[in-house]
Amino acid sequence: MTLYLRPTAFIDSPQRHDGAGERLAGTMLWFGAVEWIEDGTRRMVAAADVPAQIDALSGDRQARARTIWRNLTGPRAALTLGDRVLRLDQPHVMGILNMTPDSFSDGGRFTDDPAAAAEAGVAMAQAGASLVDVGGESTRPGAPTVWEGDEIERVRPVVERLARSGTPVSIDTRKAAVMEAALAAGAHLINDVSALLHDPRALEVAKASSVPICIMHAPSQGANPHEGAAYVDAALDVYDWLERRIAALVEAGIDRARLIVDPGLGFGKSVADNAALLNNLSLYHGLGCPLLVGASRKRMIGALSNEAPADRRLGGSLFLTTKAIEAGAQIVRVHDVPETVQAARVWRGLRDAALTARA
């Protein structure tokens, strides 16, 4: 069975069109129609007509459509990160803090100086980042695997300092031992590019904790997360994979409200694949989990702009991040925090104006 609903026809001022739109996943966005994708066919259905279309279905197909519709129109639970609670009715910026010598964009800046790294993380929070994502292993194509002991030594002192400062912090790792060390040091969120599949103990560690967990799509959960990519329809294939993974984790005993999904831009995906994901981002709200998007400084920006190097991709990063926000992404993961926070605040100002305009 293949049935999907992708929100579209967004409405700036829904108060002027009473009953014509639905609020998207509790965000500041309203949509007026869905692209109804069923068994390979696509058609537009007005949001007001969707319930009747669902009633016309039967059996498992009707149940699936009801679940997706409920996910699209229902709010997401707030995330508790230590003493901080993030409401997901507005987008949040996650700052990237790489403790690696070889990350594609900014590796090597803080590898041997955890105090300076923590200061940089605090500066991100002061600039408006809602949380800081600390990673000790590069997952760029061809990057060597890092021994878990070395990874722990890279991230633990930084996580500890950030947590002690009151900065919400996530740990970007595929390894159970690193998760354990970071959680003991005060990490508030697990961000795993392998969706808890790379390390056989990762699920056990994540389940035992109480923190939110971000699961990302990658074509492989082995040493190289980029290998083995093969898509018939990238957007739908990634959706199916994430849907199956969510179901497996819920069955394993993890509360669905703790899960965040990331479609994995750049991980085993061509420029065309990445474009398909970005152009269909609103689809993923049908999974019923908050959506995290990491497009910052990705290779596709260089591919679409005369091969601009990673340190000259700010304009493209801001555009793709804003595009993600306009599709309802609740969290955007970025390198350039002050610039992205400014863009997000301007976006929110425009949304506030539209939503409070006289009917």
Describe the structure.
Helix 3 packs across helix 4 (148-165), helix 5 (176-185) packs parallel to helix 6 (202-208) and helix 10 (314-326) runs parallel beside helix 11. This protein is 37% helix and 18% strand. It folds into 2 domains: 3-73, no CATH class; 79-355, TIM Barrel (Alpha-Beta Barrel), CATH 3.20.20.20. It has 359 residues and is α/β, with parallel strands linked by helices. The termini are far apart. Strand 2 and strand 3 (30-38) form a beta hairpin. The chain has an 8-stranded parallel beta sheet.
- Strand proportion: 15-25%
Which range best describes the helical content: under 10%, 10-25%, 25-40%, 40-55%, 55-70% or over 70%? 25-40%
Estimated radius of gyration: 20 Å
Give the beta-strand count: 14
The sequence of SSEs as H and E is EEEEHHEEEHEHEHEHEHEHEHHEH
Q: Report the CATH architecture of the largest domain.
A: Alpha-Beta Barrel
Name given to the CATH homologous superfamily of the largest domain: Dihydropteroate synthase-like
Q: What are the low-pLDDT stretches, counting only 5+ consecutive residues below 50?
A: none
Strand count, sense and closure of the main sheet?
8 strands, parallel
Mean pLDDT: 95
Total helical segments: 11
Q: If you consult CATH, what is the topology of the largest domain?
A: TIM Barrel
Features of the shown structure:
359 residues; alpha/beta; TIM Barrel; eight-stranded parallel sheet; four-stranded antiparallel sheet; globular
